[in-house]
Amino acid sequence: MTREPYPTARRADTIDVLHETPVSDPYRWLEDPDSPETQGWLLAQADLFKRESGPQRFRERIGELLRSGSVGTPAWRGGRAFFSRRTPDQEHAVYYVAEPDGTERALIDPMALDPSGLTTLDTVQPDKEGRLLAYQISVGGTEESVLYVIDVTTGSRVEGPIDRCRYSPVAWLPGGEAFYYVRRLPSTEVPENESQFHRRVYLHRVGTSTEDDVMIFGQGLKMTNYYGVAVSRDGRWLQISASEGTAPRNDLWVADLTASPPERPELVVVQEGVDAQTGLTFGRDGRLYVHTDRDAPRGRICVTDPATPGAGGWRDLVPEDPEAVLSDYAILDDLERPVMLVSWTRHAISEISVHDLATGERLGEVPTPGLGSIGGLSERPEGGFEAWFGYTDNTTPPTIQRYDARTGETTLWAASPGAVEVPAVRTSQEVYRSKDGTEVRMLVISPVDAEGPRPTILYGYGGFGLSMTPGYSASVLAWVEAGGVYAIANLRGGGEEGEDWHRAGMLAHKQNVFDDFHAAAEHLIATGVTTREQLAISGGSNGGLLVGAALTQRPDLYAAVVCSAPLLDMVRYELFGLGATWNVEYGSAEDPEQFGWLRSYSPYHHVREGVEYPAVLFTVFQSDTRVHPLHAWKMCAALQHASASDRPVLLRNETEVGHGARSISRTVDLSADTLTFLARHTGL
């Protein structure tokens, strides 16, 4: 096919010399979203996308499959259950409370707050008695959360708005009179380009001005630190965690609030300067439970005395498993023989084991509905014999399961509310070898009657220790129902095989992620699942970096690419959005050695003129405050200039949405546009 001419994009002679290395950046001007030149170019790209994208397919079917709705795991407080649910016709999930008699009431409905659908509910935290609810909302995809508190019984607002609370935990003290939370310093107190950083932990007393909040922690520490804060159920123990950006390690402190006042907690070090992640639970039995990957990359649970929380006193309760990654646990103690439930992922498939709470002895397993993903393992804070967990797999919309430790039975507690006819698919887990011989796994979802090579989408992420596990996806099911194959690779950089697996794909080892991805593609071709002419790749955020590197390193291997909200200029990524918090994952261009790592794969800097590149669709979101859309803008301009192929390079630039949550109708439109593009260029 003959493609349309691309919008004109000026190539400037911009060259930086970094560590004695010249680095060309011809589209630096696109970093200014407000310039008339950038605005004109974006309008021209929007017109091109509209003309080139053709009739939208899949939209109706994706919408039908999303009518399943969703349901969230309950949080129990004072006999009340708090949970989220989205019914078939709702744009956003609504947050509910269920009274002890089963009566339900909606507490937070984003569409009632804002009928435009642009307001999202970012996080919620009921107080310890279930009488007050802290919640955070943001507008237009910015993720700039504003915190409010309401009375659960009346629904009336008792606190807020409190701004600058993005990613803030809320840790209630008993009685609901005060809570610890995390807030950024005012922009007037920090340099202009650092307003997204400089977090602090504060104590806030409900009904008082935030001007009176007491700063508890964070002064003088790194500006990119994230903080966690929690208070034990009895109100005695405070724990504060600090992580440098997204680093896979944290410093951790505890304070006994019966020995020091909440405004001036005397913090004791649990771990500091240790290359490990650790979290604590203060048990109802007086023991301190420690979940850590210290000396255990796949995770272990230890016990100790809260008075001596340091690692020297830890004793293994549930040791590291050589194959499975320990993800969560719950304590059920209203039994003759109290137990701990431990959630694991074994090669990305979830399971739950049952252990004696005193000794850690493995007693059995919790029955689960199938081979899928488990999340949100929860118990009653006051103790009990039952636990709840979320379950989903490739053909099962989210459900909530209830486990009764007295009978050993698992039953359905709540299903997604919509009745949906889900297509029959065949799911298999493939094992293949990467370039260096490492075994990598991949989930392959295909039609039950699949024979011969088919149009295939290969998806990956490979970063930040995040695991790709089975889950219900309307777009995946719509693609497979139409005759395609969808493959999800468990690349290094993820967490599927523990922290060592993550670290094998970060910093100096990032190329392993791309090699794993290329090897997945070659495996799909070699085994007859697909052909190069039928193979598309897709990824978003860090996964957008993945497919950006893939298309520049192996343009011959892929027919089409969807690159969503990507990082692509790895030399300058730290200067925009939350980039400065990710140099612990990727490295910093300020360091000569790390600059070498970044420059070696930075997709924007490896676009070469005269290469026949695949068809590429960039999807970006104008209000994205995590990954600035400039990455995709610059890369799009570079590819449009360089590609010798007739296959198009297009940009879908969406306004009033960001990196995270969005309304269902916008989700449907985005999914339909991307699948339509991939179908067109893989022959589906």
TrEMBL record:
The record's family statement is: Belongs to the peptidase S9A family.
Q: Which residues form the Peptidase S9 prolyl oligopeptidase catalytic domain?
A: 475-683
| Reaction(s) catalysed by this chain's protein | Hydrolysis of Pro-|-Xaa >> Ala-|-Xaa in oligopeptides
Molecular function (GO) terms for this protein are:
serine-type endopeptidase activity
Q: What is its EC number?
A: 3.4.21.26
The name under which this protein is listed is: prolyl oligopeptidase
Keyword annotations for this protein, in alphabetical order, are:
Hydrolase, Protease, Serine protease
User: Taking every annotated instance into account, which residue ranges of this chain make up the domain Peptidase S9A N-terminal?
Assistant: 7-414
Instruction: Supply the source organism for this entry.
Output: Nonomuraea roseoviolacea subsp. carminata
- Entries under Pfam families matching the protein: Peptidase_S9, Peptidase_S9_N
Q: Give a yes or no for keyword Membrane in this entry.
A: no
